[in-house]
Amino acid sequence: MSESEPTLQKPNHQTETPNYDDAYDAIVVGAGLSGTAAALTMAREGLDVLLLERGPAPGTKNVFGGVLYTPTIRELVDIDDAPLERYIAEKKFSMLSADGDETAVSMRPSAWSDDPHNDSYTVLRRRFDEWFAKQAEEAGVTLITETTVTDVLRDGDTIVGVRTDRPDGEIRAPVVVLAEGANSLVSETAGLKDRPDREDVAVSVKEVFKLNRETIDDRFHLDGDAGAAYHYFGEGAVGEAVGGGFVYTNKRTVSVGVAYRIEDAAQGQTPEATLDAFESHPAVAPLVRGGRRIEYSAHAIPEGGADAMPDLVYDGAVVVGDAAGLVLNSGVHLEGTNMAVESGYHAGKAIAAAIEDGRTDEAALAAYPRDLEDSFVVENLRHYDWFHRTIATDRQFLFEDLPRALADAETEYFKMDRSSKEAHTDAARERLLDATGGWVGAAKRAWRFRRMLS
Amino acid sequence: MSTAHPHVPDVSTEDRLYTVKYRDSGESHLGIENADICTECTTNECTSVCPAAVWTVDDDSDGVPSIAYENCLECGSCRFGCPYDNVEWTYPKTGSGVVFKQG
Ligand SMILES: Cc1cc2nc3c(=O)[nH]c(=O)nc-3n(C[C@H](O)[C@H](O)[C@H](O)COP(=O)(O)OP(=O)(O)OC[C@H]3O[C@@H](n4cnc5c(N)ncnc54)[C@H](O)[C@@H]3O)c2cc1C
Ligand code: SF4
Ligand code: SF4
Fold first, then answer.
1. Full-model pTM
2. Are A216 and A284 found together in one domain?
3. Max CA pair span of chain B
4. How many CA atoms does the CB half-sphere of A20 hold within 13 Å?
5. Where does ligand 1 bind, in terms of residues with CB under 6 Å?
6. For the segment A191-209, what is each residue's pLDDT rounded down to a tens digit?
7. ipTM of the predicted assembly exceeds 0.90
8. Are residues A221 and A339 in the same domain?
9. Which helix (H) or strand (E) holds A373?
C-alpha cells in the first residue's frame, strides 16, 4: 500500500529480484476466491506463483451475499482460523407479494449446528479474502496488489505472460490463470471469451446494517455462532424482475440485498428503487429496523449457466471462477464461492502436473476441464440449466400470481369464521388452482419445476 | 412498486454513497465510445442500470450522459447494460477506485 509506484521489475518489498520474467511458474490474475485457491494449490505443489490483485488489498473490490461454502477451502487451509462470521443454522425461503404478504418455508436441521456446520458460513469478503490470500503468501506465493492486468502477452497463439498498468509492467511465465471475476476484461480483450449478454448477468446491490449482537440473536432466534440465511422471491422481493432478495446475519451486522437481471434494470427497474422496495417490505423492514447503514455496494453475477461457459484452457492459460461463468443461481441455490475454489483447485493441480512434464499447451492442461467436468461444478450447472429457461416462461406466474394466490389460500385455509375447516380447504385449493391454471396447469407446472428440488 | 407499504426507507443515493470509501485516481476510468450514438439513443439504459447514479443525462447535453466516475462501485452493469456497446469501461489505475471495507 505504498504511495510511490514500484515497478514490477524492482518491487519495493522484494529483494534481489532484478526481473520477474520467468521467475515464476505461473501468474494468477485476481486474488479473489478462485485465484487465491489456484495460487495456494500450486504453491503447495512446489510451484513459484505470482498473484496479482488490482485492489489495494485482496477483498477491497469484492462483494457477495453471502454464504461461503467451504468443502474445498477446508482441504487447503485451516478454516478454524478464518474470519468466519456465523455458521448457517437456519435457511428460509420466502415468497413476498407486492401487497405485503409473506409465505415462507424455514429449516433448521440440528445437524447444521454440529461441526463442520454443513460447510456453510457467512463471511464479509474484505476480511475473508485478505485472510485467504495471507494463507497463500505463507505457503510461498508472492502477492502484489494495486496492479491491474490489462492484457495477456502472446508468442504466436500461445499466451506467455501478462501486461499490467505498472511502469515496465510486462511479466512472462509459462502459465497465466485468469481469475478476474464477473468483469473479465482481460479474458475478453484477449478474445478468450465474449462478453456475456445482459440477460445472463445479474446486477446486485447490497447494504450492510450495523446492529448489536443481542438484537441480531433475538430477531433471528440465534444463539452463539448460529446464523441465518433468508432468501426471498416474488414481486415483493424484486418487483417485475427475475431474481431475488437476501438477508444474511453476520456477527454484528446484517447483509441485505437484491440481485436480478441487468436486462430488467435496463428496462427501467433501477437497482436502488428495487432495494428500497425490498428493504421496506413488511417482512424485511423489522429485521434491520434501527440498524445503521455502514456500507453500500454493488457487483455483477454471471448466471448464464453451463450453456454460457467459455473454453477453460488455452495454450499457456486457464480461466477459473466467475470469469468462466461458474455460478449456480437456481432460485433455491445461489452458489459461486464453492465453484470458484473448486475450479481454482483443479486448475492448480493440472498446471502443476503439466509443468512437471515441461509442457503448458492446451492439451497438457486438459486435466483441468476434465476434472471440473467430473466434479460437482459442471454437473450442477448442467442440472440447473433448464431453470433459467423455465423461469423466463413462468415469470409472471412464479413471482406475481403464485405469491398472491398462496397468501389468499392461506387466508382462506386458516380463516376464523363459522364455516367448516373443509369449506376453508376447498376455498384455499380453489385460489391456488385459479392461479396455476386448474389441475392440468398445476400438474404441468409441477412437472416443469420438479427438478428444482431434485 | 407497491401501495401496501409506502414506508420507503429514509435514505438517499448520497447517503448510501457516503458509506463507501474511495481512492480517487483523478481521472475517469469510464467513458463513451461515440457521443453521436448517445445523442441518437432514446432509452439511456446506462442511467437505469447504474446503482450509483454515475450516469445522468441533462436536458442541455444533446443526450450525451455526464459521468460522475468518482461514485462508481465498479459493478460493471453499465458495461453490460448499454445496448449499443457504447460504454468505455476500464479498471481505475493502480489500486484506485472503490475500497470496500465489508464486501
Ligand atoms: C451479491 C452477490 C451475492 C452472492 N452470494 C453468494 C453466496 O451467498 N454464496 C456463494 O457461494 N456465492 C455467492 N455469490 C457468488 C460469489 O461471490 C462468486 O461466485 C465468487 O466470488 C467468485 O470468485 P472469483 O474468485 O471467481 O471472483 P472474485 O471474487 O470476483 O475475484 C476476482 C478478483 O480479481 C481481481 N481482478 C479482476 N480483474 C483484475 C485485473 N485485470 N488485474 C488484477 N486483478 C483483477 C478483483 O479485484 C478480485 O479480487 C454472490 C455474488 C454476488 C455478487
Ligand atoms: S451510453 Fe449507451 S445507453 Fe447510455 S446514452 Fe449512450 S448509447 Fe444510450
Ligand atoms: S460500473 Fe456500476 S457503479 Fe460504475 S458506472 Fe457502471 S453501473 Fe455505475
1. 0.90
2. yes
3. 48
4. 32
5. A 29-35, 52-55, 58, 61-67, 69, 148-149, 179-182, 185-186, 204, 206, 257, 259, 299, 301, 321-323, 327, 334-338, 340; B 91
6. 999 999 999 999 999 999 9
7. yes
8. no
9. helix A367-374
